[in-house]
């Protein structure tokens, strides 16, 4: 039998008390146990360590050399266990950890980067890894602890994950600032006839968030290009003369201009959320960091 499996907190507390007081009946009273229970636990300790540990005298018990040697270690173990169950309030100044935040360049730019100064001021020893957005591998990588937080749309996050809404976002139609369409107003039919660029941050394809909306209106757009990053859009639209739907928080931008639509209609917007694995549900660091992102 594994000797460690025979040890419990009670035995360690008994040994620590005997080292301090040297009297079985006194220790029994302090711990609310009978002297027989103290003796039985002491017998287990003696068997585990292969040493008498305490020798009876006329006035109580005296520790052996091994018992004295182990005393400081036992006290340290008990103190560590106390700290586990009696944690003080969370102090970001004391945090020394690394957190990996997975997000698109858009989410990093508008939801994470603006708060980095405040995060660094309050948690100067916290290290952050800002990584690419994940979809297909997100559950496994968050389950393994490789990714700690995902800043994404709800559809890209498993339903079982904890989450908090950071903000509501809506789309705007844009073209390059130099485009003849800049500042113009188009009908939806004229919009659908334009060449379009979409952003696919997690899966490379020619599918965009506005496709379903246009299809419900009986329209289909001509997507000529897909890019992996939102921040490529100004250069790409300049080069192609195409239009795109972008989240509104990326504007204003000197290289982009709005294209207004008849009736000022736009595709359905989205929520941006911070999500974390259920295993981190009670993590004070996760709660604090999500709270900072939701400011």
TrEMBL record:
Signal peptide: none annotated. Residues 7-64 form the HTH lysR-type domain. SUPFAM superfamilies: Periplasmic binding protein-like II (SSF53850), Winged helix' DNA-binding domain (SSF46785). It holds the Pfam family LysR_substrate. InterPro entries: LysR-type_TF, LysR_HTH_N, LysR_subst-bd, WH-like_DNA-bd_sf, WH_DNA-bd_sf. One of its GO terms (molecular function) is DNA binding. It comes from the Bacteria. Keywords: DNA-binding, Transcription, Transcription regulation. Belongs to the LysR transcriptional regulatory family. This is HTH lysR-type domain-containing protein. It comes from Massilia aurea.
């Amino acid at each position: 039998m594994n000797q460690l499996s025979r040890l419990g907190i009670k035995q360690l507390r008994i040994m620590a008390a005997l080292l301090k007081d040297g009297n079985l009946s006194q220790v029994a009273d302090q711990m609310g146990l009978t002297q027989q229970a103290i003796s039985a636990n002491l017998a287990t300790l003696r068997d585990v360590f292969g040493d008498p540990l305490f020798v009876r005298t006329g006035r109580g018990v005296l520790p052996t050399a091994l018992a004295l040697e182990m005393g400081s270690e036992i006290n340290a173990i008990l103190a560590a266990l106390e700290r586990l169950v009696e944690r003080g309030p969370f102090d970001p100044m004391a945090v020394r950890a690394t957190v990996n935040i997975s997000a698109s360049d858009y989410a990093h730019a508008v939801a994470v980067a603006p708060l980095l100064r405040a995060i660094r001021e309050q948690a100067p020893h916290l290290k952050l890894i800002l990584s690419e957005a994940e979809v297909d591998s997100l559950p496994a990588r968050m389950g393994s602890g490789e990714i700690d937080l995902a800043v994404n749309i709800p559809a890209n996050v498993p339903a079982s994950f904890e989450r908090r809404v950071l903000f509501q976002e809506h789309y705007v139609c844009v073209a390059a600032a130099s485009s003849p369409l800049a500042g113009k107003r188009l009908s939806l039919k004229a919009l659908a006839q334009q060449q379009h660029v979409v952003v696919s941050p997690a899966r490379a394809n020619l599918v965009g968030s506005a496709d379903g909306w246009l299809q419900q209106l009986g329209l289909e757009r001509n997507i000529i290009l897909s890019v992996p990053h939102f921040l490529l859009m100004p250069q790409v639209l300049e080069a192609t003369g195409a239009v795109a739907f972008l989240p509104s928080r990326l504007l204003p931008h000197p290289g982009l201009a709005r294209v207004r639509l008849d009736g000022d209609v736009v595709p359905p917007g989205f929520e941006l959320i911070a999500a974390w694995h259920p295993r981190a549900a009670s993590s004070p660091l996760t709660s604090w960091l999500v709270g900072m992102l939701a400011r």
